[in-house]
Amino acid sequence: MSLLVEVQHRLGGFRLDVRVEIGPGLTALVGPSGAGKTTLLNVLAGIVRPTHGVVRLDAEILADTTAHIWRAPHRRRIGYVFQEPRLFPHLTVWQNLHYARWVQPNVPKTLLPADVIDLLNLSALLARYPSRLSGGEKQRVALGRALLGTPRLLLLDEPLAAVDQTHREEILPYLDRIRAEHAIPAIYVTHTWKEVAGRADHVVELGQGRVAFEGSVADAEARRNA
User: Which residue in 64, 125, 128, 139 has the most C-beta neighbors within 10 A?
Assistant: First the structure.
């Protein structure tokens, strides 16, 4: 996987001006609140159209403002897990999981529902509605739904921020299994360094809408401790 992002976007008084190239593995996207992390993810997902710039995933141009190219969000094959699970409350876990396959009917399926259910230990939850799930269970379902869309890239926007410490420790091993068994590239936004310190392959730090640092985890830790 190769992702090139070279975009500028203005939102009120905030300006995002980023150029970054991201490869396979897990990329930690860090920085203070208001640095532009979620805005950048929304540009990648197609939720936000940048004012200027290009987004290219492998050989496909997802956005190019000069060439007037804009790939619709549901055609990008990018899985997005938000801080809040955003499950459909009127659908069961089973139905929530299959929603991604309904909106992507013609995409070759490399992960079957049974694989994801086993991977995330969801079999006992399939008949439940979201109101009957814990915070950690909801996030596991949200992650499963993203995986069943057969994503080329996963965007994880502080996926553990809305759950307590016990459920954080419950979910992290599942993220490790996804990385180890399926090698889906991911961008992981977090304010908690220990969530990614032993997992990330690459670190991008934003500050005031710009790239303040890009490099290895070792270099990022050295910078933090300097």
Answer: 139
The one-character DSSP state at 47 is S
Q: What is the pLDDT of residues 145-169, one digit of tens each?
A: 999 888 999 999 998 887 777 777 7
Provide the residue range defining the domain that includes 63.
3-225
pTM check: above 0.85? yes
Return the CATH number at 179.
Answer: 3.40.50.300
20 strand-pairing partners: 5
Core vs surface per residue 27-59: b (16+ CB within 10 A) or e: bbbbbeeebbbbbbbbbbbbebebeebbbbbee
Residue 29 has which token pair? Answer: 């996207």
Number of helical H runs and strand E runs in the chain: 7, 11
And the tokens for 45? 């997902």
225: CB partners within 8 A, 6+ apart: none
DSSP assignment of 102-156 equals: HH-TTS--SS-HHHHHHHTT-GGGTT--GGGS-HHHHHHHHHHHHHTT--SEEEE
Under 8 Å between Cβ of 44 and 55: yes
Asked if residue 107 has pLDDT above 70, the reply is no
